[in-house]
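seq as requested:
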Amino acid sequence: MKRNPVIPFAIIAVIGILTMFIISWVGVGQNEAIKNEGENGGEKQEEASAKPEDIFQNNCASCHGADLSGGNGPSLKTVGSKYSKEEIEEIIKNGKGQAMPAGLIPAEEASVVAEWLAEKK
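struct tokens:
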């Protein structure tokens, strides 16, 4: 008795299609879970990154030094005695000269960092 050579290929195709269907179904459920987590967990993430020291370390320390002592950028240890909070915020948002690029920090965070730096006198 001869076996049909197409049957193994058909079985493999059916298994492959079923596997893709199952993976897609699981992915839809995970996508909804990620959306729900983003809506609920977004507040926690904003609170965690609202600390000016953390924002500075993540965005500014590579040029201004982790301890504000400077590096590629100028020292910011006494920046509050030279500039007001508003002036510092403008520099953060719009940049200054060619060395300080604009828009490295979002506007909300720029205000928090500017207030923190203005206290450095």
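The chain has a mean pLDDT of 85.
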